[in-house]
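2024-03-11 09:14:02 INFO worker-7 job=invfold-0412 stage=load source=structure_tokens
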């Protein structure tokens, strides 16, 4: 069990974190238990019409790049595979949680950074011939601790960003923990893969003996920052521009999804 000294504010923020949407959590559990019938997953998803519609919409978005229309959940599972569908569902789950805080600059930056990091992680994993879905999933949730703290005090984050103050320092001062420590706690609470605990804790400065996944997400996080999808101020932001092929594809996917889903 991850333990850390938390202030009262941090304890309240973390304990009040909404759970993952019920259907998303159940689908994730179902897909984790092999073998899984695509029909079983489809039937579960179809109990939530809104989620089903968004999965299909996302399956047909630039994020996926399927050349012909995906028209039903079983087809989406067959074409994309269970692991990729799981990452789509988690992408939607994260966006829904963020939208609970209302539209704000901090919410927009947090969403864009996490999504860009997930896409960069997937690209890196593919280049290394590693599990691209796991890398995407880890990148998407690497800043889950910041999401937890942000949902409790969205205005505070907006104020901090507007003043160009250090966000990590603000978290320590107000909550008594930073988003990395908070993230390790959330990974356990949400029963996300245990490998994500280390990712949450060390995605900024991995120790030498950290897992390959943690080092990969660290690199992806830096790529997202330098592409212009940082949460706070980052030295060297914009050094990797959209002329880079991977950078261009990440920027296109982030901007397209933001526009299409009103994120």
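2024-03-11 09:14:09 INFO worker-7 stage=emit residues=263
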């Amino acid at each position: 069990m991850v333990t850390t000294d938390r202030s009262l504010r941090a304890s309240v923020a973390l304990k009040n974190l909404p759970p993952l949407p019920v259907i998303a959590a159940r689908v994730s559990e179902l897909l984790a238990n092999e073998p899984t019938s695509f029909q079983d997953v489809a039937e579960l998803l179809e109990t939530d019409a809104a989620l089903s519609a968004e999965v299909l919409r996302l399956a047909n978005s630039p994020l996926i790049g399927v050349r012909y229309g995906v028209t039903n959940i079983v087809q989406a599972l067959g074409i994309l595979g269970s692991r990729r569908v799981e990452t789509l569902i988690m992408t939607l789950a994260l966006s829904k949680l963020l939208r609970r805080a209302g539209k704000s600059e901090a919410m927009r930056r947090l969403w864009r950074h996490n999504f860009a990091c997930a896409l960069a992680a997937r690209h890196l994993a593919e280049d290394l011939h590693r599990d691209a879905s796991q890398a995407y999933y880890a990148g998407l949730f690497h800043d889950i601790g910041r999401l937890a703290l942000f949902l409790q005090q969205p205005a505070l984050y907006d104020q901090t960003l507007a003043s160009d103050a250090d966000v990590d320092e603000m978290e320590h001062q107000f909550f008594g923990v930073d988003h990395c420590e908070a993230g390790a706690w959330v990974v356990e609470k949400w029963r996300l893969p245990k490998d994500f605990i280390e990712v949450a804790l060390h995605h900024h400065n991995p120790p030498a003996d950290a897992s390959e996944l943690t080092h990969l997400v660290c690199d992806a996080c830096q790529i997202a920052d330098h592409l212009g999808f940082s949460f706070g101020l980052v030295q060297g932001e914009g050094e990797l521009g959209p002329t880079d092929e991977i950078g261009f594809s990440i920027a296109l996917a982030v901007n397209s999804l933001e526009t299409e889903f009103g994120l």
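2024-03-11 09:14:09 INFO worker-7 stage=report msg="Residues 7 and 239 are 37 Å apart (CA to CA)."
2024-03-11 09:14:10 INFO worker-7 job finished
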